[in-house]
Specification:
Blueprint lengths: L7 H24 L1 H16 L4 H23 L4 H18 L6 H32 L2 H17 L17
Helix pairs in contact: 2-3, 3-4, 4-5
Length: 171
């Protein structure tokens, strides 16, 4: 039998979680328009008969966006690493395609700035991966708190949930 006296705070937390989930699905559906755009790009490449480097790099950006959306629908987590991969690919595309069209003096500064940005983003990937493996992810604790709320709501009034002190790590 479920607990009858669930507080207003827990109810609002549940409503908030549902609202966030609905917003995520709506926004991810809007982002999935990427499928249409990627298909259009692919058809243009086929009609042209060849693919330039800028076209291939753009298709990689579409692929990474679709992979990020797929991971969200499977795990209900939006990995920041994929956003960083997309940024690195976009900067690489900009470096290869657009930087050649600017003047020589500005070209060197732009080249150096984009290269440093790519190195910083790569370092961020390394740090995020290391901290996730070493300390876990923040959403792991949120999952435990959510599970504890559900368990406590299902237990009778005088029972207590078992306490788990096992460290949860993802490999």
């Amino acid at each position: 039998m479920a607990k009858k006296n669930v507080g207003i705070h827990e109810r609002l937390q549940g409503i908030g979680r549902e609202f966030v989930d609905i917003c995520h699905y709506v926004i991810l559906f809007l982002i999935s328009v990427v499928v249409w755009t990627a298909g259009k790009e692919f058809i243009e490449i086929v009609q042209k008969g060849s693919a330039d480097l800028k076209d291939i790099l753009m298709l990689f950006i579409y692929l990474e966006l679709l992979a990020m959306i797929g991971i969200y629908f499977k795990t209900h987590r939006l990995p920041v690493q994929f956003l960083i991969f997309i940024a690195i690919t976009a900067l690489s595309r900009h470096l290869v395609v657009d930087v050649q069209a600017v003047s020589d003096y500005f070209h060197l500064w732009l080249l150096a700035t984009i290269s440093v940005a790519i190195m910083l983003l790569s370092g961020a990937i390394v740090i995020l991966t290391w901290t996730a493996k070493t300390f876990g992810r923040p959403e792991d604790n949120l999952d435990k708190q959510h599970a504890n709320l559900i368990v406590n709501a299902l237990l009778p009034d005088n029972a207590q949930a078992p306490d788990s002190h096992t460290k949860h790590r993802r490999e």
